[in-house]
């Protein structure tokens, strides 16, 4: 599987229609982004069960702003529509695979429970 270009128009649909989605927020002028691109592409080939999307922050400024991107590259991981990982900086291949493995291993019932508890505490 290859990486997919994501736009603001289809972003929410991709997140909700795929179990696991990794998103690389990048820009053409960003040296670390260009260095991370082949690592991300290789991950898409090694992890065909994970949707790998790329957001060009220059072309998709509204989406980047909505995602609160302040540094690039930024990697986000979504599982069952829930943001479970977000980190700025280019990752080497072994660390990217650790992120993928950790996201795959998440107990999503536990994650949803933790979110509910956190939201309940904030409302008090």
Automatic annotation (TrEMBL):
What is the protein name for this chain? Thioredoxin
The record's gene field reads trxA
Q: Which NCBIfam families match?
A: thioredoxin
Keywords attached to this entry: Disulfide bond, Electron transport, Redox-active center, Transport
Does Disulfide bond appear among the keywords? Answer: yes
Highest taxon listed in the record's lineage: Bacteria
Q: Which InterPro entries does its entry note? A: Thioredoxin, Thioredoxin-like_sf, Thioredoxin_CS, Thioredoxin_domain
Q: Which family does it belong to?
A: Belongs to the thioredoxin family.
Task: List the source organism.
Answer: Populibacterium corticicola
Keyword Electron transport among record annotations:
yes
Residue span(s) of domain Thioredoxin: 1-105
């Amino acid at each position: 599987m290859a990486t997919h270009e994501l736009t603001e128009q289809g972003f929410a649909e991709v997140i909700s229609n795929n179990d696991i989605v990794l998103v690389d927020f990048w820009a053409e002028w960003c040296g670390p982004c260009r260095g991370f691109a082949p690592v991300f592409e290789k991950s898409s080939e090694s992890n065909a069960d994970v949707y790998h999307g790329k957001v060009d922050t220059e072309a998709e400024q509204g989406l980047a702003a909505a995602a609160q991107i302040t540094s690039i590259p930024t990697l986000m991981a979504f599982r069952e529509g829930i943001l479970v990982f977000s980190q700025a900086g280019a990752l080497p291949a072994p660390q990217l695979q650790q992120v993928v493995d950790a996201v795959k291993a998440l107990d999503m019932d536990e994650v949803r429970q933790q979110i509910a508890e956190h939201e309940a505490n904030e409302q008090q």
